[in-house]
Design a protein that fits this description.
Layout: H1 10-30, H2 40-48, H3 59-71, E1 82-83, H4 92-104, H5 111-114, H6 116-132, E2 138-142, H7 145-161, H8 167-173, E3 174-178, H9 185-192, E4 200-202, H10 213-225, E5 229-236, H11 248-258, E6 261-266, E7 290-294, H12 295-298, E8 306-310, H13 349-359, H14 361-383, E9 388-390, E10 398-403, H15 410-427, E11 431-437, E12 440-446, H16 454-474, H17 483-498
Parallel strand pairs: 1-11, 3-4, 3-5, 5-6, 6-7
Antiparallel strand pairs: 2-8, 7-8, 9-10, 10-12, 11-12
Helix pairs in contact: 1-3, 4-13, 6-13, 7-9, 10-11, 13-14, 14-16, 15-16, 15-17, 16-17
The chain binds pyridoxal-5'-phosphate.
């Protein structure tokens, strides 16, 4: 039996993997565009062409198809013209560790499925907890910040309901306080956890979208005054759009005074835990009761790699369920499934483990520092550009801006801004993001590539300017609205930008 990885197929495995890596390495060496620029219609046709019930191709041809279909049209997050979302280039030792994981294929649910892997994950969670400032903290690796936030809110809900006799009645009164800038997974978690439809209460923010601690104190009082119960305050250490941090220490003061669970969502800002120069931005995080960290954002780890960390180990208790076939109540083995929402679970910790052993935490922090420095320079470029207007200002590495040369109306600029993103994607020349801030659409660069230079950012901004100018000039969008016209305009300008 050759198909499955075993002692008998080890040479075949080595041969297939070596050749696969060689083909990929050539792609990394030779690909000079962030995206092929293929249209969705073209990509759909390529997918539709494949008959999943057709004659099997054999491993070599199947992998050739993967290379031509998927790798050829993948978005290259490590390319300097990629500046859209919170995706980082990945550390090479972590990629190697991912290959180890894929082959050994452990599951870190019970000790007897993972043995030393469980002990390594626990050591890495303890390391992360110490970096946060939880000397005896605990936690678990998760699939991402969304799952980490869900679990944090579940634990906070159970803490709030502890000892109640009327669970349903108590649940209807629970409230989650957070800002409009927090991640949407907070709202989604509230829904999944069965909280009331109006459970998420927005706390007022400052001009950069950061929670106002004085307003939080007021909101906590107002919630209690109407007979509702604050279940958790979710502070964000690195908002997804603006890259800003809520004032953690002042928020912790308000939470302590009211006896409320503080969850810090540091999915984006967790890289500051290892920053040689900016760790102080997280001051106060050690007063949280739970923290979300996304290593796949600011620790240069491959997707997925995230963790939920708690200050008090017993806070994880509510997710422990016992099954005779897996983790019986009387088991004296360390079963990670007792701390997780998942059962079968990837040993993602191995990737960060390998990275820390290979590069060291300081080096990872320096790389994150580099992108924060780059963002500061990028903001200067936007400020100095007559056609671009900086929106807000970042504490991490996002740059928000609008294309708005003198003479272009707000409404016209509103229509052009989102089209620019599509033009650049379809041209294959650059990938930027768009969002809405204070009701107005704007473009967003998320800089997470320490290899990118100021010149790279300037080139992307130049492409934005060219695309926007061509959109404004090529057709007076102010007079048009029809989607078909927009699609045609985008395609025409994308064609021009691609050249
Ligand atoms: C990205 C992000 C999340 C969600 O994390 P995933 O890993 O994408 O699930 C949560 N919170 C913040 C602040 C984020 O930026």
């Amino acid at each position: 039996m050759h198909e499955l990885l075993s002692s008998r197929s080890s040479e075949h495995y080595a041969d297939v993997l070596h050749r696969t890596v060689d083909v990929l390495a050539a792609r990394f060496r030779d690909t000079d565009r962030v995206f092929s620029g293929a249209s969705r219609e073209q990509l759909q046709a390529l997918v539709d062409d494949v008959d999943l019930d057709g004659r099997p191709l054999g491993t070599d041809d199947a992998l050739r198809e993967v290379d031509e279909l998927f790798v050829e049209h993948a978005v290259w997050f490590h390319h300097p013209d990629y500046a859209a979302h919170l995706n980082c280039p990945v550390a090479v030792p972590a990629v190697a560790a991912e290959a180890v994981l894929a082959a050994v294929n452990p599951s870190v649910d019970t000790y007897d499925q993972s043995t030393v892997g469980t002990l390594m994950e626990r050591a890495l969670v303890a390391w992360t907890a110490r970096r946060i400032g939880f000397p005896h903290g605990d936690g678990i690796f998760t699939s991402g910040g969304t799952q980490s936030n869900l679990q944090a809110l579940l634990l906070a809900r159970e803490a709030a309901l502890a000892g109640t006799t009327d669970r349903d009645g108590a649940m209807r009164r629970l409230v989650v306080l957070t800002t409009a800038s927090s991640h949407f997974s907070v709202q989604k978690s509230a829904l999944l956890l069965g909280l009331a439809a109006d459970a998420v209460v927005p706390v007022p923010t400052d001009a950069l979208g950061r929670m106002r601690a004085d307003a939080l104190a007021g909101a906590l009082g107002a919630v209690a005054a109407v007979g509702r119960v604050p279940m958790v305050v979710v502070a964000t250490a690195g908002t997804t759009d603006r890259g800003c941090l809520d004032p953690l220490a002042a928020i912790a003061d308000a939470c302590d005074a009211a006896g409320v669970w503080l969850h810090v969502d540091a999915a984006y800002g967790c890289g500051l835990l290892v920053s040689p120069t900016r760790r102080h931005l997280l001051d106060g995080i050690e007063r949280a009761r739970s923290v979300t960290v996304d290593f796949h954002k600011s620790f240069f780890q491959p997707v997925s790699s995230s963790a939920l960390v708690v200050r008090e180990p017993q806070d994880l208790q509510p997710v422990a369920w016992h099954a005779d076939y897996l983790n019986p109540e009387d088991s004296d083995e360390p079963n990670q499934v007792d701390k997780s929402l998942q059962t079968t679970r990837r040993f993602d910790a191995l990737k960060l483990w390998t990275t820390l052993r290979a590069l060291g935490a300081d080096r990872v922090g320096e790389l994150f520092d580099d992108v924060l420095d780059l963002a500061a320079r990028a903001e200067e470029l936007v400020r100095d550009d007559d056609d671009l207007v900086l929106v807000g200002g970042t504490q991490l590495s996002t740059v928000l801006f609008r294309y708005q040369p003198v003479g272009l109306s707000d409404e016209h600029a509103d229509r052009v801004v989102p089209l620019v993103r599509r033009v650049l994607l379809e041209s294959g020349r650059a990938v930027v993001a768009k969002t809405v801030v204070d009701g107005r659409p704007c473009l967003k660069l998320t800089l997470l590539n320490p290899g990118s230079t100021v010149d790279d950012v300037a080139r992307v901004l130049g492409l934005v300017r060219d695309a926007a100018a061509a959109l404004v000039e090529g057709d007076d969008l102010a007079d048009r609205g029809a989607e078909a016209d927009e699609v045609a305009a985008v395609a025409a300008v994308a064609g021009a930008v691609a050249r």
